[in-house]
Amino acid sequence: MKKINWGIISSALIAREHLIPGIQQSKNSTVYGLASRNKNTALKISKAHKIPHSYDSYKKMYKDKNIQVVYNPLPNHLHLSSTIEACKNKKHVLLEKPITLKAKDVDKLIKVAKENKVIVKEAFMVRYHPQWLWVKKYIKDGKIGTLKSIQTSFSFFNDDPKNIRNIKKYGGGTVYDIGCYPVLISRFLLDKEPKRVVSSSIIHKTFKVDTLTSAILDFDGVFSTFTCSTQSALNQQVVITGTKKTIVIENPFNPKGQATNIIIYKGSSIFRKDNELKVIPKSNHYTNLVEAFSDHLIKKTKIDYGLMDAKKNMKVLDALFKSAKNKKWEKV
User: Fold this and answer.
1) pTM of the predicted model, to two decimals?
2) Cβ contacts of 151 within 8 Å, gap of 6 or more
3) Averaged over 152-170, what is the pLDDT?
4) DSSP character string of 267-278
């Protein structure tokens, strides 16, 4: 079977822990090389992960014609410039979320991708996990009745001043890092865009980034609410309520290769023991994401979530920041 050669830029933790193993476990992709600005780092990580080639600059990797796809997990503020450079070297790009720091900047990626006939996608792996595909079908089949609300809670604790999530000029903060997920899954489940949003944030006195944000997204009468924090206890949960049933997804975003539980509350009892448990077998959603991307090149499959979709997600994030600043509802 034909395999697509992937190149990794930077030694980011998400690349080492998730994307590199995800590619190596895939049926249609292989990790051909890794680039770091530090030659020794590139060699060390490549050796540790059995990657055959290493580069001491991103540019050298972009110039290697053996690589078809670049995975880009650089800090948020570097997403735009580094991806433009990769596109100009005829590389397809899987770019970490958030795709840019402003929705208008996505237009620059749309332009350069079109000019160079390459694919650029935002790396939201959750859309490729069987649990989300199951939940979406369950809702579409009318099993919960009419969908009324989506509630998301997502948090972890990180107060390291050197961590990019806590550095404003690098695009740090809660909304960019994890607030994008409840926005994404709401759009995914409803297949529409919110009309307006309202949000409020706690801004760290030293870091100057939001460390806790709560928001309401109004999908024309269906409310998606979330509270996300980068300085709270580790927590993830999504509750989806309809007129007949409620679904609780216990590990919505980071199953880490484990089977996942979905609780279906049938509307007659609030006690878990009286309700239904749906177990979704373990699946590596990073591998699924990679295989779907490589299939665009091998099998010419239709691009499922392209740059226009990424721009729509960023427009919601833009509106959330504007609402928190202006302390009122904002149109998307």
Assistant:
1) 0.96
2) 224, 225, 226, 238, 239, 240, 241
3) 97
4) SS-SSGGGSEEE
